[in-house]
Amino acid sequence: MKPKLLLLHVGGTIGMRPSDRGYSPCPGFLSQQIERTPEFHHPEMPTFELIETSPLLDSSNMTPSDWLPIAETIQEHYHDFDGFVVVHGTDTMAFTASALPLMLRGLRKPVILTGSQIPLCEIRNDARENLITAMLIAGYHRVPEVCIYFNGKLFRGCRSTKVSAHRFDAFDSPNYPLLGVAGTSIEINESMLLPSLESNQALQVQRLTTPNIGTLRLFPGITAPVVEHFLNQPLEGLVLEAFGSGNIPSNNRPLLDLLRQAYDRGVVVVAVTQCGHGKVSFASYETGQAMAEVGVLCGYDMTVEAALTKLFYLHSLGLDKQQIREMVGQNLVGELTR
Ligand code: ASP
């Protein structure tokens, strides 16, 4: 029996059509292209059904409310398919791939997000390879988690980030090894996958509310008034992109006082590093200790995407601030290493 896949097309370059305003989504266009491309119907390919969401979106237009229909469609069809491929724009793919593992609790089947830098309709494109290999992985490999497949690499979704606006090699997973590599053969790095779930519990979808969450990147000379404005109500959670291993100008007392006041008002502030690679460790420097002293939480090696979606998730669970603060540094779905 051939595996059966659900392709869920939500938008992105891969299925776009050129227009006089640049590439834009076009209903039915990707399925037409797939229909006309013989490789998708090769006997070695899994069988598949394609569902297209309406409207199709450039992923720059997506919001957290667009993640829910993806999770719900997977839940609705969970028992009918062996795996799921989410065809998505690259711009915010890493955010969706970070949110879905939190939203899909009890997932035991592959959910592979993919897209491309050039649409499938163009003669030179990366769409064909990305989509075909994502389908082969979702159909034939036991990868029971949310991943991104792009340019020969399989990444854990909640560890991934977009690193290039134009290279085919558009994604990276700076703090976690690849889950797989597609070269002459497809090799899955089994030891890096999430452990299989014991129980046969049903797939649950956690809805996300839309709390007021933000990100702020520190830079030399950032002023207290700018930060004050940012920290003002209605902010509930903040991902603070700190220097190096989680450092802040500790000689800027007004800045530290503002963070302390935000803590006292219940704002959950989590520090991640603004470096492409590495983790937060407040103990390394006096400028890091200053963070801990004003109540900023350590985000360890989370990407901005993972930290931000985790704040959305934790604020959606109906927890009190103390419980949220305790869970920020816990590894929930493979998104951090302490
Ligand atoms: N703007 C597009 C999107 O994210 C870019 C892409 O898909 O590569 O939907």
What does this structure look like?
The protein has helices at 29-36, 67-76, 93-103, 127-140, 224-231, 253-264, 286-293, 304-316, 321-328; strands spanning 4-11, 16-17, 24-25, 47-57, 83-87, 104-105, 111-114, 146-150, 153-156, 161-162, 171-172, 180-182, 186-188, 204-205, 213-217, 237-242, 268-273, 297-298. It is α/β, with parallel strands linked by helices and 338 residues long. The chain folds into 2 domains: 4-205, L-asparaginase, N-terminal domain (Rossmann fold); 213-328, Rossmann fold, CATH 3.40.50.40. The strands form 5 sheets. An 8-stranded mixed beta sheet has the order 4-1-5-7-8-9-12-13, sandwiched between helices. A 4-stranded parallel beta sheet has the order 15-16-17-18, with helices on both faces. A two-stranded antiparallel sheet has the order 2-3. Strand 8 and strand 9 form a beta hairpin. The protein is globular, with a radius of gyration of 21 Å. The N and C termini lie far apart (42 Å). The mean pLDDT is 97. Bound molecules: aspartic acid (ASP). Aspartic acid (ASP) binds next to loops. The site of aspartic acid (ASP) has 11 residues, from loops.
Report the end-to-end length measured between terminal Cα atoms.
Answer: 42 Å
- Would you identify the regions where 5 or more consecutive residues have pLDDT less than 50? none
Superfamily (CATH H level) name of the largest domain: L-asparaginase, N-terminal domain
Helicity, in percent? 25-40%
Mean pLDDT: 97
The SS-based structural class is: alpha/beta
Highest CATH level, the class of the largest domain:
Alpha Beta
Radius of gyration (CA) equals: 21 Å
Question: Biggest sheet, strands in spatial order?
Answer: 4-1-5-7-8-9-12-13
Question: How large a portion of the residues is in β-strands, by DSSP E?
Answer: 15-25%
Shape: globular
- Oligomer kind: single chain
Which ligands appear in the coordinates? aspartic acid
